[in-house]
Amino acid sequence: MSIEGNRRSFIILAAVFGAALSVLWLIYSNLPEIPPEHKASIVLPRDIEDAKKLGQVISIYKETHYYSVMGLYFATYIFLQTFAIPGSIFLSILSGFLFSFPINLILICSCSAIGATNCFLLFSLVGRKIVLKYFPERIQTWNAQVNKHRDSLLNYIIFLRITPFLPNWFINMTSPVIGVPVFPFVFGTFLGVAPPSLLAIQAGKTLHTLTSASDAVSPLQLVLLIVLGFVSMIPVAFKHYFRQKLE
Fold first, then answer.
1. Where are the alpha helices (DSSP H) in 149-205?
2. What is the distance between the terminal CA atoms of the chain, rounded to a whole angstrom?
3. Rounded-to-integer distance, Cα 62 and Cα 60, Å
4. CA distance 110 to 107
């Protein structure tokens, strides 16, 4: 990969990031006037304490500015997902605190699918060289796994989103590089993030009792997610079984 091509990719990514950040700032600046004592809490949460403070402040404004709060949540979540920035887990937990079910679940699934698709398209256009440079071995390993499931990619993406085996940012950035089609990627993401999101929503109901993001998922719930992920692959197993019988 040439240095010039690498530099060009980084410049384009930086420009897109700057434009998206400007849009996010524009949305934030058009919010109702926020007192100085509350402004310090309006930050992207980096830990559960930030999420608690943010939830307390936003809950005040949600009563009178519901759609403005929802719009800011929607834009922020998509921004984080688009650029693979950590923090969306805290927004998922916050949704359980701020919004009612099933609105919060639809919000998370939609934001995850849109943000992941943005990331997919962005790296498909300008991030391919960057991904190949920094993750060559991991891409080869995952490409081999994807090739085994080419005829059932929707189920495989659902499986990956439910289970914790691969980080979502890695799936988003590398999928276009190894030729995962957009359709199974988008719908697999929308459906696959639902089960773990339900756990985050449930945790958000007791936000003030949490001490860390890991409290959102207990060991038993983690095991159940893994089991559910394998359940999503059962139709694929049956498909292969009957195909072998017919052959």
1. 153-162, 168-174, 182-192, 194-204
2. 45
3. 6
4. 5
| pLDDT score of 241 more than 60 | no
Q: Tell how far CA 92 is from the center of its chain.
A: 9
Distance CA 144, CA 179 (A): 12
Instruction: Read off the pLDDT of residues 63-115 as tens digits, 9 standing for 90 and up.
Output: 888 888 888 899 999 999 999 888 888 889 888 888 888 899 999 999 999 99
Q: Round to whole Å and give the CA distance between 117 and 182.
A: 8
In terms of Cα–Cα distance, which of 194, 193, 206, 205 is closest to 100? Answer: 205
Task: For residue 5, count other CB atoms closer than 10 A to its CB.
Answer: 12
CA proximity to 108, closest of 243, 199, 213: 199
Q: What residue type is assigned to position 53 of the chain?
A: K
What lies within 8 Å, CB to CB, of 215 at 6+ separation is: 48, 203
Residue 64's contacts (CB-CB under 8 Å, 6 or more residues apart) are 32
Closest listed residue to residue 120, CA positions, set 180, 66, 161? 180
The percent of residues in the chain predicted with pLDDT above 90, rounded, is: 21
Identify residue 79 by its one-letter amino acid code. Answer: F
pLDDT digits (tens, 9 = 90+) for 135-160: 888 888 888 888 888 888 898 999 99
d(CA 42, CA 55) in angstroms, rounded, equals 9
